[in-house]
Design a protein that fits this description.
Elements (H helix, E strand, L loop, with lengths): L5 H6 L1 H6 L11 E6 L3 H11 L3 E2 L2 E8 L2 H10 L5 E5 L7 H12 L6 E6 L7 H7 L4 E4 L3 H4 L1 H35 L5 H16 L5 E6 L13 E6 L16 H13 L3 E2 L3 E6 L1 H4 L2 E7 L6 H32 L9 H14 L5 E8 L2 H8 L1 H18 L5 E6 L2 E7 L5 H9 L2 E3 L2 E3 L3 E7 L7 H17 L5 E3 L2 H21 L4 E10 L5 E12 L2 E3 L1 H10 L3 H21 L6 E5 L10 H12 L6 E6 H6 L1 H13 L3 E7 L6 H6 L4 E4 L1 H4 L6 H17 L2 E4 L5 H9 L4 E2 L10 H12 L2
Parallel strand pairs: 1-3, 1-4, 4-5, 5-6, 17-18, 20-22, 22-23, 23-24, 24-25, 25-26, 26-27
Antiparallel strand pairs: 2-3, 7-8, 7-11, 9-10, 10-11, 12-14, 12-17, 13-14, 15-16, 19-20, 19-27, 20-21
Helix pairs in contact: 4-5, 8-9, 8-12, 9-12, 14-15, 17-18, 20-21, 21-23
Length: 746
């Protein structure tokens, strides 16, 4: 066989720059399979390829002497660069069938096939080259003139290019799959661990490496000493979350530091350090991986593509983490906020593994008063100082969150979440700047499965129970009670309906006659509010407390005064112009300034003498808002109106209050009147109230008189007027007018 000219060897040198052989091991040979039943040709071929090198690598020959033998060989050994096949062997088209089987049945597209023939014209060259995936088709007799090495070189070069393309495609596919897996990471630590695994798989080496970060924004708990190890695999796992300076192998630490300081990757024979720049990753990252070998050029290219994707992955996770903190972290205390609480409740509900979970609400008592007294800055510092003892009382897996200014929520296993632990936190004073602050709080606890629906529904139910606890006073506890929520729901529904019916005059007045106990004549009436619905009357004891707490109380109060004025006009028309009417006033109505002026304006508009409309307010309401109420009542009396203190004796008010309170009548509460005939203590209290009224020069009206004996005792002991079922039940206006006319008849 002819020896190739030297120039052909020189022309092959450039290929080594594209894929340099490993310096650590001899280059693997090019494997060539020769399939021919001509043993003489096979012997000559083996002699020609002995010690032959192509493109810097030796050639290794494997021989088969039939299509069947080649098929069995390729079925178990597919790693061939070139296949030399004779056209005619056991059959006239055996070589063509081999080509078809290699390509279509075995799916081998990279090996180059050179078809040989010893019979010129047996298989037309043009037709065969067009129909079959071949590198060459030549006569055996032409090999000497063309040069066997040249034929193999061309085929091997084509094989190398196909392998490079296939390898690049596979590498890019691996990078794409790795990038997809990286997108599932939600924290920097997760993506750091994932990057180590993926880059090791890409290079087909064990995962032995480190991920370091420098200049990360959210490493508040990072140790001092420069770069922090946020990912570690293999022998380096023990150094996770430590400083880079803690690595005992200084050469590795220096290599990573060099990449971070120089802002570039580093390639060495035994390791690789990838560098992810801040402009993409939002911090400086270095990924160290022990490879144990130098990388090939194609691997370096794949690493570059992978690094670009992973760098953006770090940036995306950092951005998501930052957005997550903004959405789910309390800005003041840096603990989970309400949104995070909702998310955690849903997570625990879905995946609690059968373990009972619970939520505890903690609401500080009078925190707004603390802010008013000492300022918001101190209040915020107290809230921040409270986080540590709460964490100590409720360690992980419990989650502590702040819902509103002074309302905390804790969720976790029921065995850990207990209001006794919470109360223990407040047993000790909270120290801040050498000053102790005694705090109290109201709490409620609820199992996460106690209420169906969303996490917001659960929180709403818990808040309902917490309000019940706060009504009991500072430091109170209340476990979740479905009845509390049911009643709250009923009150809300009633309040909504009240607002609608108020617009349709569904609220109206009835009149309880007030009688002169000496003569039996009706001298006035107390106007009582009623509410009629399509299903009937709603008892006053149910809707009055709701009305007093609603936003409609001022509109209701105005409507009552207007209807009372209309009733007084009707009394005038019936010739009963000397009678007066009293209306009940809620303490809430005094919240809005100008109550006395509004009542006077309604009377003036209706043409009613203000002296005939008395305002009744309970003793308890007076005590709760004394200064504000007393001032408004003084204005009303100065304008000519009269005032009655209702339910007197039940509020335990001091005589000092009574001295300063403008009042024209004291109303003896029915709780004393009811027992006058058989209870000496009730008689003693009633006598004291009557004597007090006489001493102050105010009139006395007894409520709830049901028997003649009660009326007689009150009259005999100096009470001037009374009202109750003994005389009449509350009456519609027409019936009240009729009763008054009958009462006036001698």
């Amino acid at each position: 066989m002819a020896t190739p000219p030297p120039a052909s060897d020189d022309a092959l040198i450039g290929f080594r720059d594209e894929a340099p052989p490993s310096a650590a091991a001899p280059a693997s040979p090019w494997r060539v399979l020769a399939v021919d039943d001509d043993r003489g040709f096979q012997q000559a071929l083996a002699h020609a390829l002995r010690d032959l090198h192509i493109l810097g690598r030796p050639v290794e020959l494997q021989q088969a002497y039939s299509l069947s033998e080649a098929a069995h060989l390729l079925a178990r050994d597919r790693d061939f660069a070139v296949i030399l096949a004779d056209v005619v062997m056991e059959t006239e088209d055996a070589g063509l069938r081999l080509v078809k089987g290699v390509r279509e049945m075995l799916g081998l597209h990279e090996p180059r096939i050179v078809l040989l023939t010893g019979q010129p014209g047996f298989a037309p060259v043009d037709a065969v080259m067009e129909s079959y995936d071949l590198s060459d088709y030549c006569l055996k007799s032409d090999l000497a003139s063309r040069g066997l090495k040249n034929v193999l070189t061309a085929a091997i070069r084509g094989y190398s290019h196909l392998i490079a393309v296939t390898s690049a495609r596979k590498g890019l596919q691996l990078i794409l799959e790795a990038s997809n897996r990286l997108t599932t990471a939600r924290t920097i630590e997760q993506i750091a661990s994932a990057v180590l695994v993926e880059v090791a798989d890409l290079l087909r080496v064990p995962a032995e490496g480190i991920v370091c970060v420098e200049g990360q924004d959210d490493t508040d708990d990072a140790p001092p000493g420069g770069p922090v190890i946020i990912g570690a695999a293999g022998q380096f796992e023990t150094y996770l979350k430590g400083s880079l300076q803690t690595l005992p192998d200084r050469s590795i630490a220096e290599c990573i530091a060099a990449a971070l300081n120089g802002h570039h990757p580093i390639a060495r024979d035994d390791c690789q350090v990838l560098y992810f720049p801040r402009q993409h990753a939002m911090a400086d990252y270095a990924v160290y991986l022990a490879t144990g070998r130098p990388l090939e050029a194609s691997e370096h290219e794949l690493l570059g593509v992978f690094a670009a994707n992973a760098s953006k992955g770090f940036g995306n996770v950092a951005l998501i983490s930052r957005l997550d903190r903004m959405a789910f972290e309390d800005e003041l205390l840096h603990i989970p906020n309400r949104a995070a609480l909702m998310r955690e409740i849903e997570r625990l509900r879905i995946g609690n593994g059968g373990q009972q979970q619970r939520m505890l609400l903690i609401d500080l008592d009078d925190f707004s008063g603390l802010n008013d007294a000492f300022g918001v800055v101190l209040g915020n510092r107290i809230l921040a100082a409270l986080v540590a003892p709460l964490r100590q009382a409720f360690p992980p897996p419990a989650m502590i969150s702040r819902i509103t200014a002074d309302l905390f929520a804790i969720v976790g296993p029921a065995a850990l979440i207990d209001d006794t632990r919470a109360m223990a936190v407040f047993d000790q004073p909270l120290r801040l700047d050498d000053t102790s602050y005694r705090l109290t709080a109201c709490t409620t606890q609820i199992d996460l499965d106690a209420v169906p629906g969303s996490a917001a529904e659960l929180l709403r139910a818990a808040w309902t129970s917490l309000r019940a606890a706060k009504l009991r006073g500072p430091g109170s506890r209340a476990a979740y009670d479905p009845d509390i929520e049911r009643r709250a729901g009923e009150r809300f529904a009633m309040m909504s309906r009240l607002g609608q019916d108020l617009q349709h005059d569904a609220l109206f007045l009835v009149f309880q006659p007030q009688v002169d106990l000496a003569t039996g004549r009706i001298v006035g009436a107390e106007a009582l509010l009623r509410w009629r619905t399509e299903t009937g009357l709603i008892p006053p004891g149910e809707f009055i407390p709701v009305a007093e707490k609603s936003v409609y109380i001022h509109a209701i109060g105005d409507r009552v005064v207007q209807q009372a004025c209309a009733a007084l006009k009707a009394l005038d028309a019936a010739g009963l112009g000397t009678l007066s009417i009293s209306v009940n006033v809620s303490a809430r109505q005094f919240d809005a300034p100008g109550l006395a002026e509004r009542v006077a304006a309604h009377c003036a508009e209706a043409g009613v003498d203000l002296r005939r409309l008395a305002l009744e307010i309970t003793e308890t309401a007076v005590m709760g808002h004394f200064g504000q109420v007393a001032q408004a009542l003084r204005h009303y009396r100065a304008a000519g109106g009269s005032v009655a203190i209702d339910d007197f004796g039940t509020g335990l008010s001091s005589l000092e209050y009574l001295r300063d309170l403008p009042a024209d009548h004291l109303k003896i509460d029915l709780s004393f009147v009811r027992h006058l005939e058989h209870d000496e203590r009730s008689r003693q209290i009633a006598r004291m109230i009557i004597k007090l009224g006489h001493s102050l020069g105010v009139g006395l009206i007894a409520e709830g008189i049901e028997t003649q004996g009660q009326a007689d005792w009150l009259r005999e002991n100096g009470c001037q007027e009374g009202q109750g079922w003994l005389f009449a039940r509350p009456l519609p206006l027409a019936e009240f007018i009729a009763a008054c006319q009958s009462s006036a008849t001698p």
